Amino acid sequence: MTAADPRASAALRRAHELFVAGAIDAASLESTGLRPEVARSWQRSLATGVNPDSGAPFSPVGEELARLRANHPIAPALPVIRRLLVDDAAGTGVVVAVTGADGTLLWVEGDRDARRRAEAMNFVPGADWSERAAGTNAPGTALAVDAEMQIHRSEHFSRVVQPWSCTAVPVHDPTTGALLGALDLTGGAEVATPQALALVRATAVAVESHLALLRLTGSTPQPAPPRPRLAVLGSERPRWLVTDEFGHLCTTPLTGRHADILVLLSRHPEGLSADHLAMLLDEEDLDVVTVRAEMSRLRKVVGAHTIGSRPYRLLVPITSDIDEVEAALDAGDVATALDRYPGPLLPQSISPAVGRLRTELTMTLRTAVLTSGDPAVLRRWCNSPDGRDDRDGWRALLDAAAPGSALQAQARGRLAGLDLDLA
User: Fold this and answer.
1) Local structure of residue 190 (DSSP, 8 states)
2) Fewest beta carbons less than 10 Å away: which of 85, 191, 388, 398?
């Protein structure tokens, strides 16, 4: 029995409800008719804490996603994938996806209407569809077991994915055999047939052959070097992260003043004069001579090629954890914005300009959280240092919590405590 049979779907959904609720154990799942490979995947999904009522979380966004795409080994074979899978997908209700080896969706193409519907379960570029994050699904489970996989509707672990079926086949490095990612078809029951599996399997073989040919002819494009990354959110010491020529990540701690300067330069791509930078760093007690001395020291830390002068400006594009939070907010993904926000921007900084940026970022995130109406997001905010004493946040959580729930009781109790403090 599989979920491809409409008569079996109700039985599988009932087995899923019982399993998630703890009423039956993993050993009992196969007796319900669930395929053994799917039963094992459900067990792994539950063990890793996958929420059966949510879609996949975001992982890379914005510039980070663009970098992953540009550097991914499968990228040179995209024309092959589009020719064999995407070009004929218009009007078919089929979505074509390419994932990295970690389960991150890198490209999602195919039928426009189907892609729009798939967005409701966060089946979009940048989302993490690994089995450990999204539960049983064809691309994530295929990567977890390194084998081709078809998942029919109710076999998905997450309920929001159960209206869909999917087929995925891993792609391997033609030289080393290392797992590079997976190709996936997502749509209705027709994408989980033997014919669909044969098509995706043939495309994976064509991709691997294409990559092998490019290597033999020496025409594989060189990936763009990763951008330096600035980490300045939260209580940890600010850091400058670069990837060396061997692919190793190198982390350099920054002084508070150097972190201030890099943040301000990243926000002023047009550049800043020494006078203007001095004013942004300290409106009263900083002179131009001190700024020039700090810039000289900073160049030794991040490389002279990184910062120009007259005016001071960044000469290479960089990324930052600020950018990641803002990109998630721009995409409307408040949960991921919270994931990327370990705390305020440079909380020890006395720079008035950094202070303004700190307030803007925190208040923008707070507003997005409070207007989301999502109890899980609101709870995370209210339990964070920024939201612990946020009366409006606790009020929003009280309104969003299910009547009679422990979450509602917690919110009501916290509000009473805050009101007492104000009395």
Assistant:
1) G
2) 388
